[in-house]
Amino acid sequence: MSNKFAPDNSDVSVVLCGQAGQGIQTVERILVRLLKLSGFNVFATKEYMSRVRGGSNSTEIRVSSQRISAFVDRMDILIPFHKGALNHVQKRISPQTLILGDEEIIPDDFQTSGNRYVPVPFAQIASELGGKIFVNIVAAGVVTGMFQVEQSLLGNFIRKFFAEKSGEVVQKNIEAIKRGWEIGRKLLDSQKSRLESWKKQDVSEQILLSGAEAVGLGALAGGCNFLSSYPMSPSTGVMVFLSQQMDEFDLIVEQAEDEISAVNMALGASYAGARAMVTTSGGGFALMTEGVSLAGMTEIPVVIHLAQRPGPATGLPTRTEQADLELALYSGHGEFPRVIFSPGRLEDAFFLTQKAFNLADKYQIPVFILTDQYFMDSYANLPLLDASSAKMEKFIVRTKKGYRRYELTEDGISPRGIPGLGEGLVGVDSDEHDLEAHITEDLDLRKRMVEKRLKKLDSIQKDIVPPELFGSNDYKILVVGWGSTYGVIREALEKLGREDTAFLHFKQVYPLHEKTRDYLEKAERTIIIENNATSQFARLIKLYAGVDIEARILKYNGLAFSVEEVRARLKDIIG
Q: pLDDT tens digit string along 25-68?
């Protein structure tokens, strides 16, 4: 059987599959960094079971000459680490998939059924080095050898990567990756010229970020100096990232005893003048909704990062879904304004999170960053972010005697003071209140206070982030998406190659931009793509833009869309 793989004409998809505890994420972290340092664009994403050990988890790393940001079903190279791996990814195996693995984990009938399998003695090499713990490093070496990564990079990288380990452990890992590298070079030496021709741009100086890190960096750029949260997958990465920055930034990260405490800590910090944030997921956010309502009544700014996963209840805690849009939209009893962002690209996560702090401060409202597990756990390289364009805006005033916290104003935005800054008394109250924050049951004043708070929605209109249109302005067919589906939809449409079809991506899902209706009504046919069962964004569009999107492509099994899947389903609809 030939050991040449047949990749797509612009990238190679490498999939690693093993059990929890076998170090799959370690291989991913090593490979994406070494490949990027070698000049390749990389995109990595994972799917994994909710267990500490066992099961089957897989990581996909796409390697390309061009920047990429989407999951594909296609597997050009598959490295299985346990006997159940092939069964786990069986639907994705094609005649073109090159499978590299130990003979003892490959079923006999599989080896003789015409599949493109090449035995690689990972376990034997690892045993010679001291134990099976080195299997994943040998595998990382095989892949680096296949992509012609300079051997001189390996040693220095491994020393830095395992810097906290003993010298003996570091040296064995260096030997493991070099042994694998030699195998990789032999396996695909015939592909050397082709792979070298890919290096059309120097990405070695670009940054490599996950969705969680992009949100965290955006928070820092937004001036976040207080985060309180309770760990909950897949949101915890933001808390972990920000906790690692505490020494370099004027930042407090507090792990609260529960989500109710977390949101109330953030509101207390914000009342005192902090730029505060919470990060959570569906079940945790359900506990925070009373605090969201408190923010609405007291007009205290707060940024809420809500990383979606499948529910109801615990659902699939390590999988992905876009099913909490309506939860964010309607959370908190009573009527009050809010803003909901949903980034589709890593740079969107940075700039929108930064903007969220400005808008929360300006309008004294809760602002949501809506992501999901797929977005949070994906990595990609991107050019350095221009933080100079992300300017921090502050709207706190120095109070004077006679200051009234809830002054009635034409735009509904009262001057916001904080305790200790000026001579005024800064009161707040969760009951309906008068201009000085005293409890009131004056029903006429109640009406004016409700109207005051809702007036902010009119002012917010000038700060709405418009949707982005990709493709011809003379489109007949319009595909609509939001949030993390951006990369998959865009690549699928590029491969579909229809000049009459355009893609409208929303990175702000509430309030909707005033031109939403115009974009939709211009199309002869509209199609929306969502990772949920009830097409929540389509319902929101119908409610606020008055347009009923006719065709819907929905997925809600806990997995993200693939490029091939979206392309095929669009082709079925469009014809």
A: 899 999 999 999 988 999 999 999 998 888 999 999 999 988 99
Q: What is the pLDDT of residues 310-324, one digit of tens each?
A: 999 999 999 999 999
540 near 510, Cβ under 8 Å?
yes
State the Rg of the chain over Cα.
Answer: 26
Residue 145 C-alpha from the chain's centroid = 30
> Could you tell me the CA-to-CA distances from 265 to 332, 455, 556 in Å, in that order?
17, 27, 34
Burial class from Cβ neighbours inside 10 Å (0-12, 13-18, 19+) for residue 388 reads exposed
Tell me the residue range of the domain where 152 lies: 11-201
- The answer as to whether 4 is a domain residue is no
Instruction: Indicate the residue type of 228.
Output: S
* Residues facing residue 525 across a β-bridge: 477
Q: Give 437-474 pLDDT, tens digit per residue.
A: 999 999 999 999 999 999 999 999 999 999 999 999 99
| 73/155 Cα distance (integer angstroms) | 33
Q: Which CATH number do you get for residue 367?
A: 3.40.50.970
Number of Cβ within a 10 Å radius of residue 17: 26
Nearest to 360 by CA among 296, 308, 418, 317: 296
Alpha-helix residue ranges (DSSP H) falling in 272-345:
282-298, 325-330
Peptide bond into 312 cis (omega under 30): yes
- Distance between CA atoms of 12 and 189, rounded to whole angstroms? 16
DSSP structural state of residue 439: B
Among 504, 507, 517, smallest CA distance to 544 is for 517
CB atoms under 10 Å from CB of 261, counted, come to: 18
Which residues fall within 8 angstroms of residue 402, CB to CB, at 6 or more apart? 424
- Structural tokens at position 420: 């200790």
Same domain, 257 and 403: no
Alpha carbons 377 and 308: distance in angstroms, whole number: 12
**Together in a domain, 230 and 196:** no
Cα dihedral value 418, 424, 426, 432, nearest 10: -140
Residues 66/80, Cβ–Cβ less than 8 Å:
no
98-101 and 77-80 beta bridge pairing: parallel
* Token pair for 507: 């990175």
| 192 and 215 assigned to the same domain | no
Measured distance CA(393)–CA(356) in Å, rounded: 11
E-strand stretches of 177-318: 207-210, 226-229, 252-255, 276-280, 302-308
* Cis upstream peptide for 301 (omega within 30°): no
What's the pTM? 0.95
* Ordered DSSP codes for 33-66: HHHHHTT-EEEEEEE--S-SSEEEEEEEEEEESS
Q: Which residues of 408-430 are buried (b: 16+ CB within 10 A; e: fewer)?
A: eeeebbbbbbbeeebebebbbbe
User: What span, in angstroms and rounded, lies between the C-alpha atoms of 396 and 430?
Assistant: 21
Mutual orientation of helices 135-146 and 122-129 as an angle, nearest 10°?
A: 120
Q: Are 265 and 372 part of one and the same domain? A: yes
Question: Please, are residues 530 and 554 in contact by the beta-carbon 8 Å criterion?
Answer: yes
